[in-house]
Amino acid sequence: MDIDLIATILIVGGLLLLSFLHLSNVTTVNRGANFLFGIFTFQWSTFWLDEVLFSEHLNTASTAFIILRFFQFLVPISFILSVMFYTEPHTRLSWRYGWFAVAPAVFLGCLVISPRIKNEWFDFFSILFFLSHSLFYLLWAYLKIQKHQRIIKSIHSYTEKIDLRWIKYIIYIFIGSATIVTAHNFLTKAGTLNVYIDLFFVVAVYLVAFYSLRQKEIFPQGMELTKVVSDHELIEEKVGETKVKVIEDRDLPTLKEKLLQLMELEKPYLNSELNLVKLAEQMNLSTHQLSFLINNAFGENFFNFINRYRVRKAKELLKDPDYDHFNVLVIAYESGFNSKTSFNNTFKKMTAYTPTEYRKNAAQS
User: What's the CATH code of the domain at 280?
Assistant: First the structure.
């Protein structure tokens, strides 16, 4: 039984199916990002597809080899484009991204002249160029995901299933496997490692498929995404050469009091799906204005603002004798959280205790 071949077939089959599902937008969310991710997964599959179909018929001088390797060189570009559309769905591709084509053009030139040179150093630098090109886009993608994870806290009161953490896993997989394979190829000629790498990729591919297909719509309809700024920055609009605040200083106290009353009387934070759009509608403000209000009147982002109310509610319930017979998950749902994990993480971050620890301490006092 050829384990390596079986693993290769599983990888190719998984990636091709995943590509089809994303290209057909079976999840009906994040349409542009999913389409580009489908292209990326199809290109990714070709690293194993050529072994299954026609590895014995390829040589470095053939046109098919040049086309295939050039197609594979574009994998990091399709990956970063999908990340761009996941994190910034308003992205518009234009001539300013023309520099993306420079490295592929150079690499294509290397592929064309490589058979005529037949120099080991030339081959070495070609591989190094390929890896450097990939690493550049992987690091860029990582930074964009980091920024995205901060931005969604200015929009959502929950981050599970929309924080794109699974894309980080792809980045870790690529960097780790590239490092191992490159070191292995330069240090030894043994081929046994390929089996373990392929088995590793079997697991990785199907995990990526699982997480990518459960990805929800990241940005709610009605979101003024280009105007929402994270990290407690002052949100402003440009008018001509001057900058005008979206809410005047004299109006901040009144709107702050209105928001506090809304939170106390109507308790919108108990809705686990609450986001900036929904709360802005209740306040009769734009999402831009509400984000500005929370950042400037309370000094925190939307995520922390809402979850402080939820944690306060949870603390009340954890100390309430009437809730002693309920487990922590019930307390989480009653407080507006949508999962036990989110509840535990947020509660501990804001109180330094887990909900269970807090309940025990409250019972002893």
Answer: 1.10.10.60
- Unique residue bearing structure tokens 């309809």: 221
Helix (H, G, I), strand (E, B) or coil at 337: coil
pLDDT of residue 179: 77
Give the count of domains, the chain: 2
The C-alpha atoms of residue 169 and residue 212 are separated, in whole angstroms, by 11
How far apart CA 365 and CA 361 sit, in angstroms, is: 6
- Tell me, rounded to whole angstroms, the distance of Cα 343 from its chain centroid: 21
Tokens of 62: 């053939």
CA-based torsion, 145, 151, 153, 158: positive or negative? negative
Structural domain of 315:
225-364
The residue ranking higher by pLDDT, 141 or 325, is: 141
Segments of the chain assigned E as strands: 236-239, 242-245
- Segment 163-173 mean pLDDT: 90
> Are 177 and 285 members of one domain?
no
Please check whether residues 231 and 312 belong to one and the same domain. yes
Q: Which of 342, 358, 360 is nearest to 157 (CA)?
A: 342
- % residues pLDDT > 90 (the chain): 47
Specify which of 138-147, 152-161, 207-216 reaches the highest per-range mean pLDDT: 138-147
User: CATH no. for residue 142?
Assistant: 1.20.1070
| Three-state DSSP class for residue 29 | coil
pTM for the whole thing? 0.81
CA distances from 163 to 148, 155, 167, 250, 264 (A): 7, 12, 9, 36, 29
User: 200 is written with which tokens?
Assistant: 């590793």
Distance CA 261, CA 259 (A): 5
Same domain, 54 and 201: yes
Contact 197, 22 (CB under 8 A): no
Residue 269 has pLDDT above 90, yes or no: yes
Contacts of 4 (CB under 8 A, 6+ apart): 194, 195, 198
Q: Which residues contact 344 (CB under 8 A, 6 or more apart)?
A: 328, 354, 355
Cα 164 to chain centroid distance, Å, stands at: 2
